[in-house]
């Protein structure tokens, strides 16, 4: 599907930047006239992906998180969150609800589950020692509901 707008940003993998990431993606997604529920789902999924990159990708160092977003002609949003950190040794295990590689930080282990619940599709590419890329897409219902859920 044809891309109608896009952006790419990068920032230090610091927890103080998680809220920045959610706001930037939400502001960009607003061009598609999402409902408040859709917008909150996008923000939550982005928070989970960015937090995973910060907490799990860069355990002992501060790296960089890159977010690439695109809006598509079919009224969908694609969000890619990348890190060049440790990667995921066992992706199948990492996608299991309640699994966390950081129990020392009292993590819930629900990050991928939340992303998959709130987005239409989630795909993960990872290479141990080289990082992880999470691609999430969401179709916005504005065209079906008349924008912001109003008829």
Account of the protein in words:
With 151 residues, the protein is an alpha+beta fold. It has one domain (3-145): Heat Shock Protein 90. It contains 5 helices and 5 strands. The protein has a 5-stranded antiparallel β-sheet with strand order 1-2-3-5-4, covered by helices on one side. Strand 2 and strand 3 form a beta hairpin. The protein is globular and about 40 Å long. The model is unreliable at 145-151 (pLDDT under 50).
Q: What are the defining features of this structure?
A:
disordered C terminus; alpha+beta; 5-stranded antiparallel β-sheet; 151 residues; Heat Shock Protein 90
Strand content: 25-35%
How would you sum up the global shape? globular
Estimated structural class: alpha+beta
CATH class: Alpha Beta
The run of helices and strands is: EHHEEHHEEH
Strand order of the largest sheet: 1-2-3-5-4
Helical content stands at: 25-40%
Q: Please tally the β strands and state the result.
A: 5
What's the gyration radius in Å? 15 Å
Q: How far apart lie the N and C ends? A: 26 Å
Give the overall pLDDT as a whole number: 87
* Poorly predicted tracts of residues: 145-151
CATH architecture: 2-Layer Sandwich
CATH superfamily: Histidine kinase-like ATPase, C-terminal domain
Number of helix segments? 5
Largest sheet: 5 strands, antiparallel
CATH fold description: Heat Shock Protein 90
Number of domains: 1
């Amino acid at each position: 599907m044809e891309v109608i707008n896009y952006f790419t940003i990068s920032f230090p993998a610091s927890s103080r930047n998680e809220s920045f990431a959610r706001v930037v993606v939400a502001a960009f997604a607003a061009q598609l006239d999402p409902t408040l529920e859709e917008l909150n789902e996008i923000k939550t999924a982005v928070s989970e992906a960015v937090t995973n990159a910060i907490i799990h990708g860069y355990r002992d160092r501060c790296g960089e998180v890159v977010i690439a977003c695109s809006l598509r002609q079919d009224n969908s949003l694609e969000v890619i969150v990348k890190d060049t950190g440790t990667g995921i040794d066992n992706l199948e295990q990492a996608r299991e609800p309640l699994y966390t590689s950081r129990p020392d930080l009292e993590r819930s282990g629900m990050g991928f589950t939340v992303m998959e619940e709130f987005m239409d599709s989630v795909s993960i590419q990872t290479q141990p020692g080289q990082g992880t890329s999470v691609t999430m897409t969401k179709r916005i219902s504005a065209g079906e509901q008349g924008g912001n859920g109003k008829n």
